[in-house]
């Protein structure tokens, strides 16, 4: 059952219990018994109509029908603020925000200090995006009842969205101290402690949630995150798997399950989890990026290319995907697509010299020498002329200067920069048809262990002329 309906049912139960106290009192009827002894007989007056109506509402809502509950109001008139507040909540739950606001706003004018009415207006204002009214009503609730659970949870949520985690925790704790069984307050305390890196405290609150609801998906997911961050991937995967079973509609849980499975070396499980995440949330790019990386790692070049393209479709600002599409396109011989990809990557990250170097190489590969010179000249104007970055790009621009560049590369202390520029030295010779020199430098790049630059993959491909993966990638990129 939805949270809104649970809240309404709880309010109804409270309402019925309260109104029952004020029902008309019993009347005594005195009669003579057959034995002549006077006896007292009790009879009840008519039941309080609002309480009876509230009971009807509860019965309908237990069957899960908000629409049927609203129909009851069509045939019942009441001035009771609590019942009308419930009506507004039902309208909000049904998606009729305008009608809900009309009912709640009228109620607020007549009942400015009714906390239930105020909180109903808070929820409606939140849905409308009316921050002013929402905050006005919240402040009024806190003034009337500083420890009000709903208001403190809402204020905690607000601070959490602003990433003011310490402030959010104070509000959640206020609600939790008032009502330790409140799941929203308990979850808020756990989540804020997690964000503040107070793992022991976070675990305590999440375990409290599991004590009440053993398969609570939120608690399980965060316990999995904590285990994962402590490199306890087996336990993390178990928690994540339970979370996906408890709530199989949440893509985040499948993202986590895939991540922990990958760390465990269970690549098929990781793939299945991330594919499920793409089905649940087709527009979110992260699962596609994870899949692309997995296929890349496993040597499935065609699939890797396919999913890097999908990443760009879902998130055009993710420049790493342009980089990967670019290198696969180069490998497949689709130089035009490679150029476009690296041009986009350069726009997203203009400080990475690799991107303009690849664009220049593409233009030279296409025999567009003048265009290559014009492009590289524009880039070089913004660079430090004493830097190695500038010298390497200048070598492509002038088609000379390789001796100086080779000497400077040999002096480079940073291992990854040295390997990267060795690749461009090899590519320079490759483009000029000096294959023996090119292979020498490609082999030197490939001899490096665990490099952290994308050019390493290009060097490996350039060194291997009979790569079997090129056919499938070429088919995908054309």
Helix content: over 70%
Major sheet: size, sense and barrel closure?
2 strands, antiparallel
Approximate strand percentage:
under 5%
Rg from C-alpha positions? 34 Å
User: Order of helices and strands, N to C?
Assistant: HEEHHHHHHHHHHHHHHHHHHHHHHHHHH
Q: How many DSSP E strands?
A: 2
Structural class, by secondary structure, is mainly alpha
- With strands numbered from the N-terminus, the spatial order across the biggest sheet is 1-2
Shape: elongated
The chain-level mean pLDDT equals: 87
Q: Helical region count?
A: 27
Distance between the termini: 50 Å
Low-pLDDT segments, ≥5 res: 1-6, 13-45, 466-473
What does this structure look like?
- The protein has 478 residues and is mainly alpha-helical.
- The protein contains 27 helices and two strands.
- The protein has helices spanning 3-21, 49-62, 66-74, 81-94, 97-110, 115-128, 131-144, 149-161, 165-178, 183-195, 199-212, 217-229, 233-246, 251-263, 267-280, 286-297, 301-314, 319-332, 335-348, 354-365, 369-380, 388-398, 402-411, 415-431, 435-446, 455-463, 469-477; strands at 27-32, 38-43.
- It has a two-stranded antiparallel sheet with strand order 1-2.
- A hairpin with a 5-residue loop joins strand 1 and strand 2.
- Helix 16 (286-297) packs antiparallel against helix 17.
- The protein is elongated.
- The model is unreliable at 1-6, 13-45 and 466-473 (pLDDT under 50).
């Amino acid at each position: 059952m939805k949270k809104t309906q649970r809240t309404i049912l709880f309010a109804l139960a409270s309402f019925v219990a309260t109104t029952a106290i004020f029902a008309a009192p019993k009347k005594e009827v005195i009669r003579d018994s057959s034995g002549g002894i006077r006896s007292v007989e009790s009879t009840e007056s008519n039941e309080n109509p609002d309480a009876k109506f509230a009971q009807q509402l509860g019965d309908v809502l237990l069957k899960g029908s908000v629409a049927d509950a609203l129909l009851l109001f069509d045939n019942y008139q009441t001035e009771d603020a609590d019942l009308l507040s419930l009506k507004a909540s039902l309208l909000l739950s049904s998606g009729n925000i305008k009608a809900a606001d009309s009912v709640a706003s009228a109620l607020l004018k007549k009942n400015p200090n009714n906390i239930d009415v105020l909180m109903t207006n808070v929820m409606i204002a939140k849905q409308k995006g009316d921050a002013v009214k929402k905050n006005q009503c919240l402040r009024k609730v806190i003034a009337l009842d500083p420890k009000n659970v709903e208001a403190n949870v809402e204020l905690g949520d607000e601070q959490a969205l602003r990433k003011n985690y310490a402030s959010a925790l104070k509000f959640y704790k206020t609600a939790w101290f008032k009502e330790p069984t409140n799941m929203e307050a308990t979850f808020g305390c756990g989540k804020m402690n997690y964000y503040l890196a107070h793992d022991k405290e976070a675990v305590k609150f999440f375990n409290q949630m599991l004590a009440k609801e053993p398969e609570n998906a939120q608690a399980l997911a965060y316990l999995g995150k904590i285990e994962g961050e402590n490199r306890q991937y087996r336990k993390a995967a178990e928690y994540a798997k339970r979370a996906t079973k408890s709530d199989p509609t949440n893509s985040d849980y499948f993202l986590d399950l895939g991540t922990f499975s990958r760390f465990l070396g269970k690549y098929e499980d990781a793939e299945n989890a991330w594919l499920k995440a793409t089905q649940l949330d087709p527009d979110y790019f992260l699962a596609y990026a994870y899949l692309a990386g997995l296929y890349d790692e496993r040597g499935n070049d065609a699939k890797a290319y396919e999913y890097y393209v999908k990443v760009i479709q879902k998130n055009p600002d993710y420049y790493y995907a342009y980089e990967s599409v670019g290198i696969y396109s180069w490998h497949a011989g689709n130089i035009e697509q490679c150029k476009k990809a690296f041009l986009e990557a350069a726009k997203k990250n203009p400080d990475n010299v690799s991107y303009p170097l690849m664009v220049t190489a593409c233009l030279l590969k296409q025999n567009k020498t003048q265009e290559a010179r014009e492009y590289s000249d524009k880039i070089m104007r913004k660079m430090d002329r004493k830097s190695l970055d500038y010298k390497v790009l200048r070598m492509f621009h002038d088609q000379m200067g390789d001796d100086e560049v080779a000497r400077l590369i040999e002096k480079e202390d940073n291992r990854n920069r040295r390997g990267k520029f060795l690749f461009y030295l090899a590519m320079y010779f490759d483009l000029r048809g000096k294959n023996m020199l090119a292979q020498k430098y490609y082999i030197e790049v490939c001899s490096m262990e665990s490099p952290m630059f994308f050019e390493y993959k290009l060097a490996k491909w350039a060194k291997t002329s009979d790569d079997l993966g090129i056919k499938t990638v070429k088919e995908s990129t054309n």
